[in-house]
Amino acid sequence: AVCPGPAGASGHNDKAARGAPRRASVVNLQGKRGLVVGVANKDSIAWGCAAAMREAGASLALTYLNDKAKGYLEPLAEELQADMLLPLDVEAPGQMDALFAEVGSRWGKLDFLVHSIAFAPAADLHGRVVDCSLAGFERAMRISCYSLLEMARAAEPLMQDGGTILTMTFGGADRVVPGYNMMGPVKAALQSSVRYLADELGPRGIRVLAVSPGPIRTRWLEGHEDAVQKAESGRFAGAGGAHDGNGRRGRGNGLRAQRGRMFDSVRHGVLVSLFGTFGCRTFATEPRPSGWGFR
């Protein structure tokens, strides 16, 4: 299941940004092959990643949730000249194994993986955290967090020469963001998972990264205007209010974050925070003697 929102989809009104990439590439991914999970439309953060990576020369495989979603994804996959467009519902038994088996059969290797999916049942997401149901919490964790562990486990054998696993997080994991509700604890679990995955996979040359691009106007935000206004004025609970981790106050530029900047941030294997409205504190992990580290 896929849920558009700050966790896994982005919005930008610039016509060029919504279509095929037109900016000059700053990296060379010629010969690299990557799987991007979570493209729903051209407002998806996953689409921004895929477009930037394709422009840099990478070969791509994309996934779709179900037959209805496939109809929307087919023209996007064609636009990106994707090698594969394969089904993946992380709740459907066997689909994860089938996806990576097909990728391995077709490519024989995998250089990078983008995990950009998140979901929470509406009744739980729009209510108080203290009132969320066990079933809703378990489903949100299953789709938004545990799926990363599954994908990392399946990708590891295909990354014999090292690789990169990238996921999307949000400042609501570190601070209380109005309207983010139950996804805050879920994203906190995702961030913790990234640290442990990086520690375990780092010695094999596999980087595990989490990007927090700041709030971007998405379909989720369309129903949470109050949260946006509070965020832009820095009125949310957390240590010291809205700041960028270096004591500087946020200036509300997160809604205008460029997708390309997000991809550029990880090109060295070190995650550079795209500090936006919420002043999200992000962290980086990369192969090094201790396995992982913060920046």
SSE diagram, text form:
Layout (H helix, E strand, L loop, with lengths): L14 H4 L14 E5 L7 H11 L3 E6 L2 H13 L4 E4 L7 H13 L4 E4 L6 H4 L8 H22 L7 E6 L14 H19 L4 E6 L7 H4 L2 H8 L26 H7 L30
Parallel strand pairs: 1-2, 1-4, 2-3, 4-5, 5-6
Helix pairs in contact: 2-10, 6-7
What do these coordinates show?
This protein has 295 residues and is α/β, with parallel strands linked by helices. The chain contains ten helices and six strands, in the order αβαβαβαβααβαβααα. The chain has a six-stranded parallel sheet with strand order 3-2-1-4-5-6, with helices on both faces. The chain is globular and about 45 Å long. 49% of the residues are buried. Mean pLDDT is 76; it is low at 1-21 and 236-295.
Sketch the major β-sheet.
Answer: 6 strands, parallel
What is the gyration radius calculated from CA atoms? 18 Å
Cα distance spanning the termini: 32 Å
Enumerate how many helices there are, as a single number. Answer: 10
The secondary-structure element order is: HEHEHEHEHHEHEHHH
Tally the beta strands.
6
Give unreliable regions as ranges: 1-21, 236-295
Quickly list its features.
single chain, 6-stranded parallel sheet, 11% strand, disordered N terminus
Compact description:
By secondary structure, this protein is an alpha/beta fold. It is built from 10 helices and 6 strands.
